[in-house]
Amino acid sequence: MKPPAFIVNEYRKKLYNTKNFPQDICTVCEEAKCPNRGECFSKGRVTFLLLGDTCTRNCRFCGITKAKGELPPPPNDVDKILDTINKFQIKYLVLTSVTRDDLPDGGASIFSDVIEKVRAKYPEVKIEVLTPDFKGDKAALDKVLQMKPFVFNHNLEVVPDVFPLIRPEGDFNLSLQILEYAKKNYPDVLVKTGIMVGVGETKEQVLSLLRDVKAHGIDIMTIGQYIAPNKKSFNVARYVEPKEYDEYVAVGKSIGLQVVAGPLVRSSYMADSYVV
Fold it and tell me: What is the pTM assigned to this prediction?
């Protein structure tokens, strides 16, 4: 399906010069082929990808490399992250990771370690984490949440009716429970989630999810257009018109849920601009 003009034009606005950005940093921006990466890099914004660049799950929407079996141990990127914070004077840090089901705690201890070392050197930096589900292991979740990140993010990805088609190795209800657990047990941490649209959902299903998300105590939700990263990925079912995103924002406001929505909105895009 050919993208409509409003998608193409929005993308063209985001083609910025990124030549000064360090090439040895692993980012989800590059690995997942985010359409906003040029804009963010040019402004010194980046979402660091922990635990390596290879994921153990085969989600049908994602452009990150997948593999099964034994993977190499996760790299220690703390020094690179610290150097990048210094070089670009980053005040709002976003950390995410691939899913590493092969690790005992899913890599939660690495999130914790990076947060600790960033805070030791740059205590003024606010930190947002976007974590995998850690198979619902509360001990693993606590390792991250006990570090009191400014924002804890875990994406639901799509509405529940579409979830099994696009994330066959995940569990929608488990992800919702993780978000609820975070808010109930760490009320001072902002809890955030995000979904993609254009994968076969209806507007009514999205509106229903907004209400469900609010009922589970979540503070912020992002909604953006799904764009297939390659020809093997899940097909785009439709391109959602801008006015529909406006409706989601308005409904969110009416129920006390902060919704950030638009064609190229992504879960970490300009994350600092609506929480600081």
Answer: 0.89
